[in-house]
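Memo to structure team: turn this sequence into structure tokens by end of day. - J.P.
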Amino acid sequence: MAASFISDFRLMWYLDELKKNEFLQFKQLLKQETVQRGLQPIPWAQVKKAKRQDLASLMTQRYGEQPAWDLALCIFPKIHRKDLCDKASRESVLTSRPAAFLSSENAYRAHIQEKFIRMWSRDSFTEIPGCFDQTLTREEHESLEEYFTPRVPRRPHTVVLRALQRVGKTRFLMKLMLAWSDGTLYRDKFSFIFYLCCRELKQLRVTSLAGLISRERPDDSVPLADIVAQPERILFIVDSLEELECTLTEPESELCRDWREERSGKMVLSSLLRRKILPESALLLAAMPMRPEALESKLDHPNMQELKCFQDSHVKQYFCCSFGDRGRAMAAFSWVQNNEHLFTMCHIPLLCWMVCTSLKQEMERGRDLAATCCRSTSVFLSFMFQAFTPKGATRPSQQGQGLLKALCSLAAEGMWTDTWVFGEEELRRNGIGDTDTPTLLDLRLFRKYSESGSSYSFIHACMQEFCAAMFYLLDSPQDHPSRAVMPLEVLLLTYFRKERASWVFLGCFLFGLLHESEQQRLDALLGMQRSRELAPQLLGCLRILAEIEDPEEQVEFLLFFYALFEVQSDAFASHLMSSLREAHFPLRERPDLAVAAYCLKYCCSLRELTVSAIGSWKWPMGHLWRRGDHSRHSRGAAGDGWIRIIQSHLCFCRTRKVSFSCETGIFFEVFTSNPNLQHLSMTSTQLSHDEVWFLCSVLSNPVCNLQELL
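Reply from structure team:
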């Protein structure tokens, strides 16, 4: 069977791998190689006009099956395609493996395919067949193939896939597993791929690498020792590495040296990542990009990659597919595109589905999107309102209100105990009975987490954060059945100091629910006024936090500003920001510009301002000031608008000291408008030749009163 495969097809398939210029080089070298070997050459006229299939036939007919194949293998490295020789070598190993091994591998692939199809189906309501489904896109497929292209010869592969929090990295890894299981990805690279979820590993008190592998193998006809005897044919995928808080700093004496050795899940994983067990295996680690340099320094020559979210074109396509009616879809898309915060949400697939669902239902009811879905908090509340309100009704039933309160109670407990997967005990403790879980699944607020047992999670971590924020407006934390749930003041301090990495939007949602329009909808949703009573308490807490001067006790400015932005109350923001003397705006993504522009206008007493662009984020219009540059992209122009607002406030504020750490001098021109600006620090700012020229022209302007430049 293998010989027939090689003789009939393999040479043709390998020639198909060559690019046009490589195929031409192959023909030239074929002529030279046959002469050097003393073989009778194929007439050049036939070789010159031959297509790939024709040339494979000509070579096989003239020289025989194996000599023709050997000839090709000799030529491939000379056209810089040694990878084809490596591929042939791997395929040779594959076809020579025992039948029992092949049977075990096929059984495992079938098991993985069945398992991950079931996992995918839990969120199947978000997919659009033929457009956004479980199939890898061409770009995704090409990226994954490149991940394990040799970068350092003879060195095991370690790939770190950095992904922003909650952008869908687990769904991406599920697509990878499905593509491998059906043979369309890594077919000749890996015989086995083992998926390790750190969220599940965290629950295991004692385990071993052998135990983790055995959990996933339905067929044990081949001893595990035979599988791990070929570690270079194994890929371990480690999802959500941040869940285990793996620092990879454990003393080497504590690490495992044997794949059968039992330790804590965290220690087994550290031993695998630091290549103390199965060092020749390949690793793909999915983690949030927090302190990636620390992770990178602990790994062996990692290939650092970044998982991309939905692109703008994908969001537009998703809207069109989701709405069906193209006119209504484009109206909704245009409206969202002009709202930086909602548009950013839409770059996360599941949240894009949620935004589409909310907007579509609001539009069908003839409501004004500007009034009902203008901010992230309002979209979540709209989704929740629609989920719990029966058709034809104006508010949830009493039973629905009770279930909503129980759901919010569960979410609050989860935030304080760092729990994202809930069992029957947690559900019952918070008032969710066995008959309630099917309802929450149907409402698409819950998803079944595991196939065996009754464990559930919210459809997205953001939904859990939103429900936890609602809890504080519905109930008193002192009455919560779990002692882990802390008072409001402790929540705010914990959130704004960023003491918990998993609390991403909790504070923003809490303050967003204080917006007047959300207050009205909460009254309609639950018929109560507790949220209005909390506003003065929240304002007082924020005031105290804003006045903290001790650097070790200070809050994260950006989180603080986002909370104010969600409230959208001039009186609220003015009351808090009017006495602020120092501010730091760390700009990580586009919506941060809108937040900075909104908050800066209330900083009338500001004396020192620091603006920094963090990570790989780029200024949307880095060369706005350049002469003759009049081109504008729609989203670039939107970013330009926020930059202009920031510039206008800088022109009139009494700030004396400004620090920039970014990739452009886009704010330099404010020094020609505001003589109060006397100190400028540009630490880590990278300036082009044109930007240096622009800075010089600013410094020579009579209005510029700059006295210190660092």
